[in-house]
Amino acid sequence: MKYTIFSIDYSRLHYIQQMLPKLNGWEHIRVSSVDGRNAEELIEAQKKHPYPINWDARLGHLGIWYSVLNALDKAPIVTFEDDAVLRDDFQLNFEQRVAELPDDWDFFSLFIPRDSDKMFNERRDGVSRSLTKVYQRYGGVSMYYSEQGAQKIKALLERDGLTGQYDDTLYMYAKAGELNGYCSKPTWADLVYITGLEKSIVQETDYA
Prior knowledge:
This protein is α/β, with parallel strands linked by helices. The chain has helices at about 15-20, 40-50, 60-70, 90-100, 120-125, 145-160, 165-175, and strands spanning about 1-5, 25-30, 75-80, 85, 105-110, 130-135, 140-145, 180-185, 190-195.
């Protein structure tokens, strides 16, 4: 299994150091994480991924989008933000749940925002013992992308440009039937979670 960790500085290194032992045996892929605060990095990323920007984006949101797009070039791949926390038996539970993914899957969110639990409807969304179609509105802490999914996402961006934050956009496309997105049912334990203690670097950036 290939994975990458998005990180633009060393402020969350302690989280990364806690993640790495739980990913032992997986292949760590170095993917360029784009710092939206760095004008040169942003310009280079926009040249590589020249999609129109069709919303009032913060520079940090664009940095995340370009980091994700860099990772999609390496799909299939699992991505982690640098404040992700993995449960102790992460790999075992990940393998069990991924084994239930339908053949047509495009992305699988390892993270569930718990304020969205009430949005889940078993009859409407459930697909297997532990998995469901995505029902949440946001949440991009950790994603698993298929090669097919990566190509479909790029095709949608070719058509529509960047229209919102990357995680919101993927869930919107999934709910519209244009991507096949899945996650764990909220009744199952988290594969990946966050402490909620970290300030958002993205929200402190200027608008593009």
